[in-house]
């Protein structure tokens, strides 16, 4: 067997090592699509993060019954954006239990002020019903699941609080606004601003999840918008909602 010249062997070894190092460096610098972590439980997204050599940082946690506690609700950057190893992905995960907040006193203030107080606590304005009163648009009672509740109690953040609002007995009328294209929450706020309430809510058949309900937009209403003929204050407006066109296109893919 021919002897190996030490100089030639050293040169050959150097070439092999340099070639391997070049491959490793190139692989670590190569961009790849951001993996989809949304909906994955903690053990699964941690494994993907390890395999892809990316860092996952939790920037927020919210209580959402549609997701398993610890699973990812939202990520940034989103799926499809090209990243490299070592990149940080910021995520919002599902909390184990909702944060509890103190219910503010909502009575004896205007409906508009009550909404501001609810927003400041991370609470939602639920159903608004009107009751005869000498004070128009004044909040008379605050309720949860149909039962009157006192201010100061602890409720989960995101809870919807129903309000009873005063309405004078005079024959006051208001214009029904055009709600086409608005989400349910936005449409309801617009109605409340003109002292109207939400009646029946009908979703189209493609609306299946809570996220779909949030994204759905109003495409029909009754009574319809009419700038020349109003309705009595406190009148209800029925709403029909469906997913916007771009959401339907995304579902097809």
Q: Per DSSP, what share of the residues sits in E-state strands of 2 or more residues?
A: 25-35%
First-last Cα distance: 63 Å
Number of helices, counting only DSSP H or I runs of 4 residues or more: 6
The tally of beta strands, per DSSP, is 16
Please compute the radius of gyration using only Cα atoms: 29 Å
| Largest sheet data | 4 strands, mixed
3D architecture notes:
There is one protein chain. It is built from six helices and 16 strands. The chain has helices at 6-29, 42-52, 111-120, 184-193, 210-215, 245-252, and strands spanning 32-33, 55-62, 72-76, 82-83, 88-94, 100-102, 124-132, 139-144, 147-148, 154-156, 160-167, 173-174, 197-203, 217-222, 231-232, 236-242. The N and C termini lie far apart (63 Å). With 253 residues, it is of the alpha+beta class. The model is unreliable at 6-27 (pLDDT under 50).
SSE topology:
Layout: H1 6-29, E1 32-33, H2 42-52, E2 55-62, E3 72-76, E4 82-83, E5 88-94, E6 100-102, H3 111-120, E7 124-132, E8 139-144, E9 147-148, E10 154-156, E11 160-167, E12 173-174, H4 184-193, E13 197-203, H5 210-215, E14 217-222, E15 231-232, E16 236-242, H6 245-252
Overview features:
single chain; 253 residues; alpha+beta; four-stranded mixed sheet; three-stranded mixed sheet
Task: Put the structure in a nutshell.
It contains six helices and 16 strands.
């Amino acid at each position: 067997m021919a002897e190996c010249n030490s100089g030639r062997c050293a040169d050959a070894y150097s070439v092999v090592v340099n070639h391997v190092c070049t491959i490793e460096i190139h692989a670590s610098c190569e961009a790849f699509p951001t993996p989809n972590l949304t909906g994955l439980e903690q053990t699964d997204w941690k494994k993907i993060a390890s395999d892809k050599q990316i860092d996952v940082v939790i920037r927020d946690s919210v209580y959402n019954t549609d997701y398993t506690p610890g699973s990812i609700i939202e990520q940034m950057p989103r799926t499809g954006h090209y990243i490299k190893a070592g990149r940080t992905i910021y995520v919002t995960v599902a909390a184990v239990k909702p944060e509890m907040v103190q219910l503010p006193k909502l009575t004896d203030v205007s409906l508009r002020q009550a909404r501001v107080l609810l927003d400041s606590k991370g609470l939602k304005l639920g159903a608004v019903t009107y009751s005869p009163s000498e004070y128009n648009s004044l909040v008379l009672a605050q309720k949860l699941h149909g039962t009157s509740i006192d201010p100061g109690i602890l409720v989960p953040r995101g809870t919807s609080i129903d309000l009873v609002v005063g309405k004078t007995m005079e024959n006051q009328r208001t214009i029904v606004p055009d709600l086409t294209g608005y989400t349910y929450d936005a449409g309801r706020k617009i109605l409340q601003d003109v002292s109207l309430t939400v009646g029946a809510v009908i979703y189209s058949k493609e609306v299946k999840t809570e996220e779909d309900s949030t994204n759905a937009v109003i495409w029909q209403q009754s009574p319809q918008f009419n700038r020349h003929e109003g309705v009595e204050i406190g009148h209800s407006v029925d709403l029909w909602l469906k997913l916007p066109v771009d959401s339907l296109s995304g579902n097809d893919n």
